[in-house]
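User: What would this chain look like folded?
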Amino acid sequence: MITGIAAGALGGALLAAAFLGSVWYSAGRATSGDGRLLPIMLGALARVSLVAGGFLVLARWGGPATVTTAFITFLVVRGAVVWRVHATGNGPT
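Assistant: Here's the prediction, encoded as structure tokens.
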């Protein structure tokens, strides 16, 4: 059970990092003047698919404790990064 919780925490953190990295990349492309709608929409679809697939893999591999830990870790990491970006004044107002 402890290994499942640790794997869930690691998986949630990795999924959050991949999600936020993809958002950062898409935002950079959108603001660089080459921000066509189709690549932005496909990037959003890829992000959602990646995160959903990651949670499905964790659920099948580890069970309820693993996926619950992964989901909570994902939310905490995402919230911390969003809070830090807003605190530094680099985010939207």
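DSSP finds three helices and no strands in the chain. If you want, I can go into more detail on any region.
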